[in-house]
Design brief:
The protein is built from 11 helices and 10 strands. By secondary structure, it is α+β, with helices and mostly antiparallel strands.
């Protein structure tokens, strides 16, 4: 779905800039359309006689330190371009904030389906199709975590040692920057996570927000992923963090109560045919050889991180830093997310 909004990417600025940067004068005549659905960075479709591209930039107005790193997205996708991890082809990165007020980049458009609330009519209708998509998501995640990051120029992309400890600290600081009154229970989960840090088994490229609607599904070949998108949280670190956040988003058919109350994205994985969270974890373990005994900690961290992300969305919406619709109700998701995180740590189950 698209919306005819160009705030944040004025075509009168974008067109001439790209014509010069890409060496293609036809970009001077460009149409800019906001692609609806993003809750963080802003994504626009660019159309001109020269073709179509996608532009990504941070939200409008004040942003949190270290968040919305366009250079990071551009660098990791450029590094992964010649691997078997599907990513869009990057075209240009602009770090000059005088152009659009923030750094931004452009990449080639990828055809396919981004599934948010439901599958397109006639697509992935059978239970077998849903199982195939489940395995496709696990397979791509395992391929990402198998990349030799040094060999693709990403050896300095992050500091993998101590990654999870820094993640707990980082998101605790993000919470301090977006704190909501009468929600001190968030701090309790942060301390519990810090006190129970697991040992890292392996360091890999991590996506940071891997889930179904951050991928582009092939338009006709069910189960094939054409692109992994939204790399703003990517770095080098513990791959089980990616599996944990995937399972945070992964609703299943028997979920109810607080588990559905904490949902912030589409619940299409709750449709019959999709793997359960345990089956996803087992499939990932089989492909990677990683142990998953301590996976509940990573799931609990994912609940905590997502609660803090929700607080950030609440803050940016209040400041008018987002454009588009769909930013209501995120404050009410925070308590159930924290409840799920604490229960997961206490019971050592994949809630």
């Amino acid at each position: 779905m698209t919306a005819p909004m160009t705030e944040g990417a004025d075509p009168a600025v974008v067109g001439p800039y790209l014509a010069d940067a890409l060496g293609e004068p036809a970009w001077k005549d460009v149409t800019v359309t906001l692609i609806a659905g993003g809750k963080s960075n802003l994504t626009y479709r660019l159309d001109s006689p020269a073709g179509s591209l996608v532009l990504r930039r941070p939200p409008l107005g004040q942003i949190l330190p270290t968040a919305h790193d366009m250079g990071r997205e551009y660098r990791v996708m450029t590094g992964l371009r010649d691997t078997d991890v599907p990513v869009p082809v990057t075209r240009h990165f602009c770090e000059d904030t005088q152009v659009l007020g923030q750094p931004f980049y452009v990449m080639e458009r990828v055809e396919g389906h981004i599934v948010t609330t439901a599958f397109p009519a006639g697509y992935a209708e059978s239970t077998e199709d849903k199982a195939t998509i489940s395995h496709g998501l696990v397979d791509v995640l395992a391929r990402l975590h198998a990349v030799d990051y040094g060999a693709v120029g990403l050896g300095e992309f992050g500091r993998p040692d101590g990654y999870m400890a820094r993640q707990v600290s980082r998101w605790s600081k993000q919470w301090d920057a977006t704190r909501i009154e009468d929600m001190d229970f968030v701090d309790v989960l942060a301390k519990d996570l810090s006190d129970q840090l697991p040992a890292t088994q392996r360091n890999t490229v991590v996506h940071g927000d891997y889930r179904l609607d951050n991928t582009m599904l092939h338009p006709t070949e069910v189960g094939r992923i054409n692109a992994v998108l939204d790399w703003e949280m990517s770095t080098l670190g513990d791959p089980l963090a990616d599996l944990g956040i995937l399972l945070v988003y992964w609703l299943q058919t028997d979920d109810s109560g607080v588990r559905t109350g904490g949902s912030v994205v589409s619940a299409v994985t709750a449709q019959p045919g999709f793997l359960t969270r345990q089956q996803v974890a087992d499939a990932y373990a089989a492909k990677t050889g990683l142990g998953i005994d301590e996976l509940p900690w990573y799931l609990a961290f994912g609940f905590f991180k997502l609660a803090v992300v929700c607080a950030g969305i609440v803050m940016r919406a209040k400041l008018g830093a987002m454009v588009g619709e769909g930013f209501d109700g995120f404050e009410t998701r925070i308590p159930p997310l924290i409840e799920l995180g604490r229960a997961t740590l206490a019971d050592q189950k994949l809630y």
